[in-house]
Amino acid sequence: MRRALVVAGGELRLLLRSRLAAIGLGALLALSAVAAWTSSAHVAREHATRAAHQAAVDRLFDDQPARHPHRVVHYGTYAHRPLGPLAAFDPGVDPYTGTTLYLEGHRQNVAAFGAARESSGLLRFGQLTPAFVLQTLAPLLLVFLGYASVARERESGGLRQLYSHGARAVDVLAGKALALGAVALAVALPAGIALVAAAASVPAEVPAALAVAAGHLLYLAAWVLAIAAISAFAGTARTALVALVAAWTVAVVVLPRVAAEYALRAEPLPSRVETDLRLQAELRELGDSHDANDPFFAEFRRRTLERYGVERIEDLPVNFRGLVSAEGETLTSRLFVEYAERLAAIQRAQRARVDAFAWATPALAVRRASMTAAGSDLENHLRFLAQAEAYRYDLIQRLNRLHADGVAYADDVQRSRDAAAERRTRVVASHWQQLPDFRFEPASPRERLAAARPALLALGGWVAALIGVLALAARRLERTA
Fold first, then answer.
1. Residue 240: which domain range?
2. What is the tally of structural domains in the chain?
3. What is the distance between the alpha carbons of residues 94 and 98, in angstroms, rounded to a whole number?
4. Counting CB atoms within 10 angstroms of each CB, which of 131, 143, 184, 422 has the fewest?
């Protein structure tokens, strides 16, 4: 181990004397610091904006005047998805998914205002975030700093000198890897500070932040080992550079894109228009709550009269129109949930297809681990959609119950023809203020850690496999010595 540390010290001194290495390292450190600062500022601003918008729509809903409950059903409200504290490090899918849902009766709307849809196409090439810097740019810098670490020694005859001082091939490779690992830690320092700052605001997020950090450290360790091994196997430094740049291109750029395209083709997601057309067709088959002669609701009227033991709708102790609205919402919401679950199942299947490529590139494994632990992955978005739909259904049914219990049927029938009856159907505004506001409950850090564990294990597998490759490279160096 002592000899490996001596080799590492010599390699670090060589890197520090290299003007190109100093410029590259300084540039990436500056870029990482800028990414940490801009991402934190953006997330703080976005979080404040969404919270302000949510408070504003809640206030507007509460400030409605006295009106008919069914008008409030159609007035609706909005649900805004908040950002988690670790989103400043890795925003995950947030820029590509909608952040705001309009909640109203009889409909389930799609989330709107995704940053990628509202901004230029350049956003799709990757935001400047600490996660992006570590996952995409840091490996490229390590490639340019370490490609010649072993090949250079072979070309210059330095290996023979190291061997003459008692060093073995394993000491040389371990020392080169340790030196490059120290550079990797330096590159990760600004991002690590940003991660600590993000977790410090919410102490419960510390375990999740540690998982995010562990994932990126394993990822960088895999690149350090791969660079040292390829530099040892390559005949010349130029060959090592070409091989490593090709490996970075395939692992970081090509394979993630191939995996995404494969998932889209293997698990095709129907378009929104196609889904809406199918949904509307099934809704028509269920029944029309606005049609008094609809077969389903005619049978519902018969069962309601039988349950209350009366002969006429006018004799019911509740407003039949409110009951019909509630029954219609139950039917449509059940279908909405069914369709949402189908789409979520397809999206999860797509994600599983992409995750299967983690054996081919650690870039996908680290992205999965980072987004999942940070709470900015697909599952978090699906959780928001499910909670927003549950809230929408509960809100609409509360209004329907208010319609049934608080508005007389006779006034309800005459309100379009009798001004006095119309005024009597208006429910006092205090009822809107008693209705609960939407509050999103994200997955707990423990749940996110459990979900991120497979990706972290995949990264650990990559490190273990590359240690084995490095051991093979050391044996090859021993034989060629």
1. 2-480
2. 1
3. 8
4. 422
